[in-house]
Amino acid sequence: MSDFSRVQAEIERGIQQGLHFGAQVAVSVKDENRLVKSFGMNEPFQPLENKMLMLWLSACKPIAAVAVGLLLERGQFELDRPVAEWIPEFGARKKDRITPRHLLTHTAGIRGATLGWTPRPWADTIGMICYSKPEPHWEPGEQAGYHVDSAWYLLGELIRLIDGRPYDQFVREEVLLPMGMDSSWVGVPEAEFETWEDRLAIMYDTSGGFPEEQEDLTRRESVTCCRPGGNGRGPATDFLKFYQHMKRMVEGENGLLRPETARMLVAPHRVGMLDKTFRQTIDWGLGFMRQSDHYAPGEVPYQFGSFASQNAFGHCGNQSTAAFCDPDHDLCAVVLFNGMPGEEKHQARMRATLDALYADLELTG
Q1: CA-to-CA distance for 339 and 153, rounded, in angstroms?
Q2: Among 136, 156, 229, 305, which is least packed by CB within 10 angstroms?
Q3: Which CATH number fits domain 68-167: 1.20.58, 3.40.50, 2.70.98, 1.10.287?
């Protein structure tokens, strides 16, 4: 049985190089937890612990996909119905043909409606996206480009309109808690903040040679803000449960979703398309990234390492996180760093760590 010495060496090397203060890692093989460990520090004199709530950033996007899957199974949602039929205001400025399928596959052409990390009232955020212009000469579904947050706010609004509950409440009650993710949220409720404050992990900007706390990501207003595409928080052990659950459903076990629904979400829906944001060809399911390193080995960003199978699915988060399932290897893995060192250093760091994981498990063949 592996001692995961290569993974640990890579993470410790990153600490020594100042790329991060610490990391959480959770790995399972054949549904058996093989590595659950925290490394380094949360802040000076405070070790990073397994129970701490790490920021997942965009790695939380598949949670919305599962929420959509629930509504699909209940007959309350349609992937190819124009969003404007639910939200008439969204149809302004020639956005009337955009559908939820386009949102989930990053082919909607509204990348410019990016809201950043400034907390805003939900209605104001939706209004800003509805008022935005689509990208010129972009036919929905015909071009691809990663949408940082706009598409996910719209999915959250659709879920709110259909179900009646705010998005953060819906996914907490219908996705996270049923999967056993008791310490996870997409926006910690204001009423719960003080209860969990001592367990909130800090995120650092480590790109400038001197680490600085990312206050726009860690202050109270940000922690409690519902951002469907980027404000998931919880321990790596919780996040691992999400992919263990997905793996079992994809393999044919009834769970939160029926197997056919789970398989549909992670199946390739966008194939061989150049992503104009990442400037690489990347395949996509419905809300889930698919391993696409084979298009340009070693160059495609936010992949699951060099040795993941082409059936691997999951999602990564900006300069910090990776969470995925590789069903061909019966593997689920979550790696959460607390430092954002810049794109180039992060891509090298995460690839080296995930490659080390596959080497430790003797899966590099």
Answers
A1: 26
A2: 136
A3: 1.20.58
Residues in the chain where the model's pLDDT stays below 70: 1
Return the pLDDT at 117: 78
Superfamily of domain 5-59+182-360: DD-peptidase/beta-lactamase superfamily (3.40.710.10)
CA-wise closest residue to 347 among 325, 318, 323, 324? 318
Q: What is the DSSP letter of 200?
A: B
pLDDT of residue 1: 61
What pLDDT, on the 0 to 100 scale, is given for residue 2? Answer: 78
Tokens of 236: 């790596």
Q: Which has the closest alpha carbon to 64: 107, 104, 108?
A: 104
| Residue type (1 letter), 108 | A
Which of 261, 305, 269 is CA-nearest to residue 288?
A: 269
Quote the distance between the C-alpha of residue 232 and its chain's center. 8
The per-residue pLDDT for 118 is 82
Distance, in Å, from the CA atom of 89 to the CA atom of 10, rounded to the nearest integer, reads 49
- Please report, for the chain, the start and end positions of each structural domain, with discontinuous segments joined by +: 5-59+182-360, 68-167
